[in-house]
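Hi support team,

I'm filing this because I wasn't sure whether my run with adenosine-5'-diphosphate finished correctly. The job status page said complete, but I'd like someone to confirm that the output block is well-formed before I use it downstream. Pasting the exact inputs I used:
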Amino acid sequence: MKHLSKKILCAMFVLATTLFTANAENKLSEIQKSGEIKIATNAEFEPFEYKNGDKIVGIDIDITKKIAESLNAQTKINDVSFDAVTLELNSGNCDFAIAAMSYSSDKAQNVDFSDVYYYSKQAIIVPNNSNIKSSADLDGKRIGVAMGFTGDIYCTENFKNAAIERYNKSSDAVLDLINNRLDAVVVDDAPAKKLISLSNNKVKMLDEYLFEEGYRIAVPKGETELLEHINSELKSLKDSKEIDKIVDKYITDSYSPSIDLIAQIYNNLKEKDRYKMIINGLLTTLEITVVALLIGIFIGILISAVKVSRKENFVIKILKAIADLYLTIIRGTPVVVQLFVMYYLIFSSTGLSKVVVSMIAFGINSGAYVAEIIRSGILSIDVGQYEAGRSLGLSESITMRKIIMPQALKNVLPTLVNEFIQLIKETSVAGFIGVTDLSRAGDIIRSQTYEPLVPLSTVAILYLITVIATTFFMSFIERKLRVNDKR
Amino acid sequence: MISVKNLYKEFHQENKLLRILDGINVDIQKGEKVAVIGPSGSGKSTFLRCLNGLEKPSSGSIFFKGTDITAKNCNLDLIRKNIGMVFQHFNLFPHLTIMQNITLAPVSLKIYSKEKAEYYANELLKKVGLDDKANHYPSQLSGGQKQRIAIVRSLVMKPELMLFDEPTSALDPEMVNEVVAVMSDIARHGMTMVVVTHDMSFVKNIASRVLFMDNGEIILDETPEKLFKNCENVRVSKFLNKLI
Ligand SMILES: Nc1ncnc2c1ncn2[C@@H]1O[C@H](COP(=O)(O)OP(=O)(O)O)[C@@H](O)[C@H]1O
Ligand SMILES: [Mg+2]
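And here is everything the job wrote out:
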């Protein structure tokens, strides 16, 4: 399913970019002019790129900094899902993508690849007591891979009888390996070593490597000048052994995971100021939800007013058709697809931030549900109210605005709060385009510490508190309103 | 003032065609106080609602001061400014104060400024004895008070014609008189009125003319004196006997 939607998105994307992106000037001179180099990556692949507190760090990031230095430019990092890295490149938002990517003919149709800057081997991780001794034993087994990574592509092609489980994060795959849900995990050599040490050595690496691949930087198609500069810079980094130094720095940087709860809490929240990421995530979640609901209420009022209009003229008929189309599309497609369409198609070249795009996407989504809520509120108002308004000579729209809508909104207030509560939880999907909301903040910490208990329960408790507080606030408001009624 | 020609109204209900108004012809002059009586379901409300365009007739035409209000291009909102309507269930706006209920239409339609509308509303409230309720909400009033406010809400627009659909039917008996008193006051000031009612005190004391409706037709069009003294129509006298 994911792969299908990815392909469709790719196809739509190529179409959209050919249609919309004006012929920009050469990226290399653009960088030199602006003094800023914009890269796309997926910061969930330790040790190549990952989050350390609020900062994105890793081997690829250090290499990027070297390239940026050579151009006297600052680095600006755009963190998206791995699926989206090349899409980001095509949208013109970024100068190059660096995300432990290897050459694939599929991708080479849309981007140009640099020379190899690092050779990675695909390691096979198995439980310590596993009877898998070599790659020959893998077919027919349950194999965990990181979705879209080389391990995924290789295993899918070569082990036709295996059950391939695709994960967003290789650390999740290793966790499932420990919990006996998988027989083996195939992942890059460098992160594999780190994952094993993080797992308290409950799993081990086979001596045999599955497949060797070279990591490359991707630039937008046709950016020859930029590509040549990157290649020459990579060559000098390799010649001076600079790259080896960078790799050593990240691979030897490890720590031992803790067993007791207090230490885990300390490690997951206090260490490296990780709690800040959680708090910022919570704020982002609330921001997106509140703005989205406001947009949703605005759209909902318009749509529901059109839907219940008694006018029979041509304009209203057209508006009703549009409203029906909107309701059908929004309620008939998953919100995550709507989010992707907004981010990668509609707003791809506008430079709007991910958070803003999320607000718009969730707002438009919520509008459809709010419209139905408000419509039911309108229908619950006695028709006599409408007739009294019209009898006084008020137009349909004034009657709607001044008489029907205020009463309808008051009636549906509790249902609107439910929609808000629904939305708080739904916005966790924003992580798919790389928004660090509450859910993703927990995910990121989990992928760093390899300890799911504290980040997951912290996130869950924070959601719960938000929802309970909202409910409490609502019943307070409702009591207030009822007092007003009786006055 | 009003001229109704060949008015028909039909509803489709469960594949059946219900004829609610069956060829109504009537002229109403300025200053007349017309009572419309008749058995329940005879089409009185439908007839009344046609007069201000709340109900669209199936065929026929209605002229208000020479304008055909059933015509497609007729601006009903303009017509309705001149026609007040009072409903059986008051239909006050529960989310607005009494003052806001009264001034909403004239202010929204820019007939008066807010200050002027409030001043005029206060005058009318004093007349119906409810000026102390201006800042109350409808839910705080009794039925009789609500109906008096509903009348004021129409009057503030200075209409030339007032329509009443059973204005006292939803009231407790002891509240009927306060509403009838207000209506009688309006009548004395020369207002043209069409009143659907079962209240015989209105018919006897205020009405200048009575229409009796049955099965969508006006089967009797008389002065109240004649109606009560010598009624030859069997159905009408049966109906009246039941009421009195
Ligand atoms: N919108 C409607 N659809 C179908 N039937 C209706 C509608 N409105 C009124 N009627 C029917 O028309 C008949 C006359 O109604 P009405 O004019 O309210 O009578 P009255 O006011 O004399 O009691 C009733 O039988 C009622 O059921
Ligand atoms: Mg009636």
